[in-house]
Design goal:
The chain is built from ten helices and 13 strands. It is of the alpha+beta class and 300 residues long. The chain folds into two domains: 230 residues, Hsp33 domain, CATH 3.55.30; 50 residues, Alpha-Beta Complex (CBS domain Like). The strands form three sheets. Strands 7-6-3-4-5-11 form a six-stranded mixed sheet, with helices on one face. A five-stranded antiparallel sheet has the order 8-9-2-1-10, with helices on both faces. Strand 6 and strand 7 form a beta hairpin. The structure holds zinc ion. The site of zinc ion has 6 residues, from loops.
């Protein structure tokens, strides 16, 4: 860690980029504030924060690629590491995350980096559920490669979506504080030439330090540098942020969905219920009277 590292507060955002007149597309994003919001909510260890941040960044990129109205994407990473299952949900660039054991941590690796792969686990599954609004959800799955998440998402795109992809996910975390986070995704499209593929491969080394790169550079300038000479065009830019869309109404619906028997048991045995959202830690209290009212509405 460089002690002189300047903590800047450039805004989170996502760039949609076209390369070579549509031969490839790229997404480039800064997700620092998103990671800090997750840290405030979940109080994770440094390693867990890096893992959660990388997952949110990838999920945000999946989210902004979905065109259907009212669509959302849910990604779960179920690895065999001490962090336990992690889940992130995105509506466009609005993302939330949870982890089973955010307090879990591991010593630094020999190279001085956070052991994200160890904490997530080297074995397990990455599952992507795309809710397309009215249409049937799309469910894709792939095995974890390393648990470091960048490689795991690259594998997911290649195997499950048959879309070869370069994926870079990075979070620079120091003492449980995210200094900088971001990601990049590059996908060759039908009609991509061999030369363009070679160029993209060659330039992928630029992405390896993405968390540092996005810390103090405008994304547009970064893209200009990385994709110099490849007919780079910025198609759109959009905001990305941590946001939980839970509400008392949604929790009421969840309670009703439990059924009359379960509700009756809550009333008789506990005299009420306290529900806490996994994604924002908001607590909602339901009194005996509240539950009685819900019981009235339950049809089974
Ligand atoms: Zn919530």
């Amino acid at each position: 860690m460089n002690d002189n590292f300047a903590v800047l507060n450039l805004p989170d955002e996502m760039l949609h980029i076209s390369l070579g007149g549509g031969q490839a597309r790229a997404l480039l994003c800064r997700t620092t504030a998103m990671a800090r919001a997750a840290a405030d909510i979940h109080r994770p260890s440094s390693t867990a924060l890096a893992a959660m941040s990388r997952l949110m960044t990838a999920t945000a990129m999946l989210g902004v690629m979905m065109k259907e109205e009212d669509s959302s994407v849910t990604v779960t990473v179920a690895g065999d590491g001490p962090l336990g299952k992690m889940t992130a949900v995105a509506h466009g660039g609005q993302v939330k995350v949870s982890a089973a054991h955010p307090e879990a941590d591991l010593p630094l690796k020999k190279d001085g980096h956070l052991d994200v792969g160890g904490l997530v686990g080297h074995h397990g599954r990455l599952t992507v559920i795309k809710d397309l609004g009215l249409r049937e959800p799309y469910i894709g799955q792939s095995a974890l490669v390393s648990g470091e998440l960048g490689e795991d998402f690259a594998q997911y795109f290649t195997v499950s979506e048959q879309q070869p992809s370069l994926v870079a996910l990075g979070a620079l975390v120091h003492e449980r504080y995210c200094l900088s986070a971001g990601g990049a995704l590059v996908q060759p499209l039908p009609g991509c030439t061999e030369e363009m593929l070679e160029q993209l491969e060659m330039r992928s080394v630029f992405f390896s330090a993405i968390s540092r790169e996005v810390a103090d550079m405008a994304l547009e300038d970064l893209a200009k540098g990385w994709f110099d000479g490849l007919d780079m065009k910025i198609l759109a830019r959009e905001n990305v942020a941590y946001r939980c869309d839970c509400s008392r109404e949604k929790m009421e619906r969840a309670l009703i969905a439990m059924g009359r028997q379960e509700l009756r048991a809550l009333i008789d045995e506990d005299g009420g219920a306290e529900l806490t959202c996994h994604f924002c830690r908001a607590a909602h209290h339901f009194s005996r009277a509240d539950l009685e009212a819900l019981l009235e509405r339950a049809t089974r």
